[in-house]
């Protein structure tokens, strides 16, 4: 029988020159360099037209357009959250008393994370008084629990994340007919320096 010899593979010489990769610009890099500025209606209007522009007709896009009259003055970054809410909603006490509908809220605050929602709830203490606030996010709270709470009690303010708010509306747990104010937490940035509007899923 013939003997078999295993030949060792020849060692390839490592190339010392490494190819340089072009660093892709991320939204966090851009935001890191620019200071926060007050949101304006055009920001949201442009975002909506970009999002729906590809798969909607010209007429449908026209119908989706929000006029400037739909917007209240944005926070000019000199206000705390409570003082800003007092400025845009001076008749809050009256609105709160008149609100008796279940499965709905008068004011809906939308922000990018559960932790940010809790932060905003704490910071609106001076504004909200004795009205009831509902947490509308997924962290540690099941959607069925939130639907049951909305069906059984009257809530004035809802603070939550876009994903959970969308799910509640789709499952008929939250009705927006009596919602008078919708506040977007536009400028806050997460650990990756992304604003809520920079997250593709939103």
Automatic annotation (TrEMBL):
It comes from Caloenas nicobarica. This is CMS1 protein. Residues 1-21 are annotated as: Disordered. Pfam families: CMS1 (PF14617). Coiled coil: none annotated. GO terms for cellular component: 90S preribosome; nucleus. It comes from the Eukaryota.
């Amino acid at each position: 029988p013939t003997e078999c010899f295993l030949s060792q593979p020849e060692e390839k010489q490592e190339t010392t020159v490494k190819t340089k990769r072009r660093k892709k610009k991320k939204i966090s890099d851009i935001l890191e360099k620019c200071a926060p500025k007050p949101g304006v209606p055009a920001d949201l209007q442009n975002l909506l037209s970009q999002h729906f522009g590809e798969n909607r007709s010209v007429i449908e896009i026209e119908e989706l357009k929000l006029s400037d009259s739909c917007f209240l003055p944005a926070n000019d970054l000199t206000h705390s959250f409570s003082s800003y809410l007092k400025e845009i909603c001076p008749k809050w006490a009256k609105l709160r008393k008149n609100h008796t509908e279940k499965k709905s809220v008068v004011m809906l605050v939308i922000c990018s994370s559960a932790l940010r929602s809790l932060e905003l709830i704490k910071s609106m203490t001076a504004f909200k008084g004795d009205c009831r606030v509902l947490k509308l996010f997924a962290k540690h709270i099941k959607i069925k629990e939130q639907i049951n709470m909305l069906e059984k009690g009257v809530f004035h303010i809802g603070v939550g994340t876009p994903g959970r708010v969308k799910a509640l509306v789709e499952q008929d747990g939250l009705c927006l007919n009596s919602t008078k104010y919708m506040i977007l937490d536009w400028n806050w940035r997460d650990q990756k320096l992304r604003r809520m509007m920079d997250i593709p899923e939103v």
